Amino acid sequence: MTSPYFEQAHEFVREYLMDKGAVPEEIRRYRYHHCLRVAAIGRAVAEAENLDADRLELACLLHDVGKFDSARPVDHGRTGARIVRPFLASLGMDSGEIEEICQGIAMHTDGLWNTPEASPDYTGELEWDSEPSVLARCVGDCDNVDRYGTYRIHDTMTWWRFHELTIPEQIERIDSYLVKIERERSYTCATPTCQSLWESALDEHHDFFTRLRRQISTCTPYLPYS
Ligand SMILES: [Fe+2]
Ligand SMILES: [Fe+2]
Predict the structure, then answer these.
(1) Can you tell me the mean pLDDT for 30-41?
(2) Ligand 1 centroid distance, CA of 220 (Å)
């Protein structure tokens, strides 16, 4: 079972992201697939938490539509909400449902649903004057769960160009990343299900990089250089 709006929203996301020709194709493709994975996480979380699974799945599917459209990366949720609102209205969706989905999308990057003064997009006008629902808060949580999914290990090591680093450089990178992972543990999710998925994702990262560090370190006593 899925939302009656899912297929149209899926097509909208795919076209919207993949048509951004100025962005390298692999980056567009990653973002599109990430949206699909976050949608799946959203459905699973909603079903476990007795939330509206169609609605959370849809919000998660659409959450990164504004990824390539904002002046500051942190604003892409609020930009995305402005792109998504007329699309959902064109499907004939109820306005309360639209606003819950859009508020979740708007706040998924930094927890702020209205544009902060520091943003170039700031107009002084409030888009929302009420606190977000649990479902709206789950959008950012589900995004975070996928951001720290197994794929992120590959992405991180590719970003570091890990295979080009010396062993001391590799160990240094791993150590600072382990500190970052520990800092992420202060993030609190809106539901126990998200919290559990989030903590498991961080544990997986911690375990992998701790093991990798241990393995790399076994050869250092034999090396004539540091
Ligand atoms: Fe995002
Ligand atoms: Fe995302």
Answers:
(1) 97
(2) 40
Alpha carbon 110 to chain centroid distance? 11
88 pLDDT more than 90: yes
Distance (angstroms) between ligand 1 centre and the Cα of 226 equals 40
Q: What DSSP state is assigned to residue 105?
A: H
- Say which ligand is closest to the CA of 144: 2
> 9-23 pLDDT, tens per residue?
999 999 999 999 899
Distance, in Å, from the CA atom of 107 to the CA atom of 75, rounded to the nearest integer, reads 9
CA 182 to chain centre: 18
Distance from the alpha carbon of residue 129 to the mean position of ligand 1, in angstroms: 22
CA-wise closest residue to 6 among 40, 51, 33: 40
Ligand nearest to the Cα of 108, by number: 1
Give me the amino acid identity at 70.
S
